[in-house]
Predict the structure.
Amino acid sequence: MAEATRAWGGILDFPAADRAARPRARGLTMVIDKGIGLDATRDLMELAGDYVDQVKLTFGTSAFYPHRLLRQKIELVKSYGVDIFPGGTFLELALMQNKLEAYLERAESLGFTGIEVSDGTISLDSAARAATIRRARAFGFPLVVSEVGKKDPRDRVPDLQLWSQVEEDRAAGSDLVIVEGRESGQGVVIYDDAGHILQEELEEMVSHVSEPNRLMWEAPRKAQQHQLVMRFGPNVNLGNIAPDEVLALEALRVGLRGDTLRQYFLTIAGEEATQAPVGVLR
């Protein structure tokens, strides 16, 4: 949204001046849509469309939409320049039933702009995973994403294998690699059972992949979003954001929430100590 069209445009500058604008390749926000209707989707796009880059109709929820309604919803989201794709679990079922081709054909005919390739529940070897990514790419979907990490902690993949999987997915044609966080943000990959970020796992992941900016961190919880913004800056890719949390996340990114405003203030105060206001943080 152009600054001139914002209600407060031209009055105050955002503390994070380098926030990428749409269309953007970094700082992506992926919304998790568990089944909101057309009116709610229209409200989301009208109010926050400039801060949404992708909408995932998560799990297999799109299977329950009436055909006409699903097409309307897809076209509505696309009209705002936002990508929309079905959840990876749905594709996993297609693979289990040996119906990948039919799945991709239907996704294309419905108008989806993206496909997610994952094996969060099933097991895919590297060759099958790469072939699935390449097949989705060959169908001409503008966006092909993959996801690493298992949904059940009992199926946890060794870190080394995850790092390799990220690199293999990118080589096969994945635009982004999503780091599994589930809708709960608990007990998977970089999160412990309470939803806290495991700092060592996070840093190990970043240090072992060649393009960390091509990772999207599923971060459904505000504390997780805050920590990732503080670690990577306002242009970190974040996924599994609830529809009613999009503007709150954007405020966090640009320094319009207390958590990040305080950090930006302290940075400025450290650089310009003689000019810093007195007493603001008391």
Summary: The CA atoms of residues 114 and 178 lie 14 Å apart. The chain is about 40% helix and 10% strand.
